[in-house]
Amino acid sequence: MTDPKQSITEAEAIEQAKQGHEAAFEVLYHLHKRRVYSLCLRMVSNPAQAEDLAQEAFLQLFRKIGTFRGESAFSTWLHRMTVNVVLMQLRKKGLPVVSLEETLEAEDEAPRKEFGTRDAKLTSSIDRLHLERAIDRLPPGYRTVFVLHDVEGFEHNEIAQIVGCSIGNSKSQLHKARLKLREYLKFMRAEKAKTG
Amino acid sequence: MTCAEVRQVLPEILDGGPEGVFPVDFESHVKSCLACSDLISDLKLISSEARQLAASEEPAPRVWVRIAAELRAEGLIREPAVFDPAREAESTSPRRRWSAWWLVPVAAALLVAGSYVVSHKQAPQMAKRQAPATPLTTPTPVTSAATSASVSAPAPSATPTSAPSAAPQRLARKSAKRTEVVASAEKPAVEPEPSAEDQQFLSIVSTRVPSMRATYESQLKAVNAHIREVQAYLKLNPGDAEARQHLMDAYQQKALLYQIALDRIQ
To answer: Percentage of chain A surpassing pLDDT 70?
Structure first.
């Protein structure tokens, strides 16, 4: 027997959700759950917290679904809402949404390279687990900008608006985040080579 | 152009610097400087690989259960009221109503049983604290058929999708550090028959909401399989506090399954 919900479109689900149909809420949840949860997980690096945040994001969305008029894509609306939920949580916990660069320099654990010196290049692909771990190690401010830009595909002007910083600051933090990730990834690779 | 100058303009160039407006000697420097060209290709690689992490994680099924419960509590879920005389008669029949209420104590009993089993497991753990560590093993991770059954296609409304939970997922993550898996011999070769309570539960579901029977049956199988898996794992690793918590979670999910069915039937 075919599940009738499988043939429903997102637009139909939105309309039915506005009427309070549970099945429609569920369809919308299943359509977007991975993206929302992954975003939360990348930004807070804690599965239990990410679940709570994803839940909160969907609840906020469903509470406001009656006001959705379709001017923007539904997914954009949801992802923006998710980011806001996560950032609010970070702010509540007193974590910087935008990095305080001077203080963060001291947190760098990986060895620094001087300009012009060449070291081993990363291979043509990066182990996904290593990349995830490296992102987890980023200071929260760098991580936010990196996740929003490189993972989620937000533009710098959007990030600047969302996190409340300048476009230049967003670019600069993204660049520094990538540099740190490169160092972490090399460090991990070296550690792995040592342990065999 | 020096390496330092290249690195100063790099953030602009890597991110949407319009084609053709690079500083004149940027490209010639990069071509001749291996350190800078490696740096640029690494940063581009990191950026492109990062994109694959979007939507890469699956939330635990319990997230939807919690959301649905909250939506119901807030009155946001308003199922259209369709008058069905047959169902109306059923729901007002005292015998029928009574027959579903047995689920309440069963759900509570499951929780108590879960607590007992979990706390009971702590005794051997204390005893074994001095004993040599058991080889590190872990239950079969998320890929079990039971888990995938509940996680894949969207389940019908009010479906207790939480059955297998994120517990195996967390265990699976943990297992990254572990190398061995529970040998297949440790798992029951044949799936045991459902308990009397489970059979009675399914029989009531069949009577009251026949369309949900298959879903509840598969969820029940999934949660039971998960309980068995964690129990088998705990036999080998009685000191694993995380696994004990997973077992408790699994019992809670089974209780939740009964509770959701009860809400649905009433």
So the answer is: 80
Distance from CA of A83 to the nearest CA of B (A): 13
User: B12 and B134 in one domain?
Assistant: no
pLDDT above 90 (res B50): yes
Tally of domains in chain B: 2
CB-based contact B97:B140 (threshold 8 Å): no
Q: Does B63 touch chain A (CB under 8 A)?
A: yes
A18 vs B119, residue with greater confidence: A18
ipTM exceeding cut-off 0.85 for this assembly: no
Question: Is B256 domain-assigned?
Answer: yes
Contact: B55, A38; criterion CB under 8 Å: yes
Interface contact A22-B7, CB threshold 8 A:
no
Question: Does the CB of A2 have a partner CB in chain B at under 8 Å?
Answer: no
Residue B232 lies in a domain: yes
In which band, very low, low, confident or very high, does the pLDDT at A192 lie, cut at 50, 70 and 90? Answer: confident
Q: Is B59 on the interface with A (CB under 8 A)?
A: yes
Cβ-defined contact of B55 to A178 (cutoff 8 Å): no
Q: Please indicate, yes or no, if residue B62 is contained in any of the structural domains.
A: no
Any CB–CB contact under 8 A between B14 and chain A? yes
Q: Is residue B249 part of a domain?
A: yes
Mean pLDDT across B234-246:
78
Same domain as B261, residue B196:
yes
Residue B5 is predicted with a pLDDT of: 87
Query: Residues B183-206: what's their mean pLDDT?
Result: 67
Q: Give the domain range for residue B14.
A: 3-53
For each of the domains in chain A, give its residue range(s) and CATH number, in order of start: 4-92 (1.10.1740.10), 101-195 (1.10.10.10)
Q: How many inter-chain contacts (A to B, CB under 8 Å) are there?
A: 168
